[in-house]
Amino acid sequence: MFSRVRSFLVMPRWFQGPRCTNLVRLDGQVAVITGANTGIGKETARELSRRGAQVVIACRDIQKAEEAAREISSETKNAVTTVKLDLASLNSIRMAAQSLKIQQPKIHLLINNAGIMVCPQWKTEDNFEMQLGVNHLGHFLWTLLLLDNVKEASPSRIINVSSIAHTRGRIDFDDIMMEKNYEPTRAYCRSKLANILFTKELANRLRGTGVTCYSLHPGVVQTELGRHLRVTTNRLIDDLFHWFGRYFFKTAEMGAQTSIYCATEPSLCDKTGLYYSDCAEMRPARQAENKESARRLWEISEQLVNFSYTSV
Fold this sequence. Notes:
Layout: H1 2-15, E1 30-34, H2 39-50, E2 54-59, H3 62-76, E3 80-84, H4 90-103, E4 109-112, H5 130-152, E5 156-161, H6 184-205, E6 211-217, H7 229-232, H8 235-248, H9 252-255, H10 257-264, E7 274-277, E8 280-282, H11 291-305
Parallel strand pairs: 1-2, 1-4, 2-3, 4-5, 5-6, 6-7
Antiparallel strand pairs: 7-8
């Protein structure tokens, strides 16, 4: 009986997964992280700041971003700055990127972490389906606008936070905004598949530049990401999700470990376009390795955001 109780108590620690154990310093490097006012983004910002990086938090709620920046700066004794970025607005993305390009001529780490999950059938300012708009299209434009600065810092890295949910993702290129058959969970899975396809195509286009690209699954993490479940599912599922989360999901700190690993691990310097989970390379779902889908998604994304980076 005692052994069973002990096993139950140990299980939550097993679910936390491994830590990033390298001791790489990032002094003199600039790390830009979207959605880093809370959750795994904030913990990623905290650790990179501890390692000496000059962290920039890009966030829609600038007040929360500044609060997070002050907290991290106070702890690490390293300056953390902010930029207002609403990934649901192409205009906001362009304004934020224009400002950041001037402030930070070199960006060594670009971590696309922000996201929205299982929300109602909302639209972005530019009439995109919200989950595809924020999770993929917003970060697509943000990345391309900052690419010159990332190249200038070479060797540098771009990290896209995806999810194991991509395994259930499918992209209907004839109904890219899911106008005909919207379902919140399918829309989320599709946006996470898009993150990996974007990473792979970007990696191919950047070969030889010194910029490497990675996508990752952070684990099932207890964060604010599930805040829309009560609206899109029901109260019972929402309650169960958060109850299980307290005992069996990763903490935000542990959920940040693979992002930190992809940002700092020396052995990844000659690798690009790969997918990681629990601080190790993993093979994504078959549809995430479809080169034609990656190319087609890139071309459609360029048209939708009305921007093409011709030198990629």
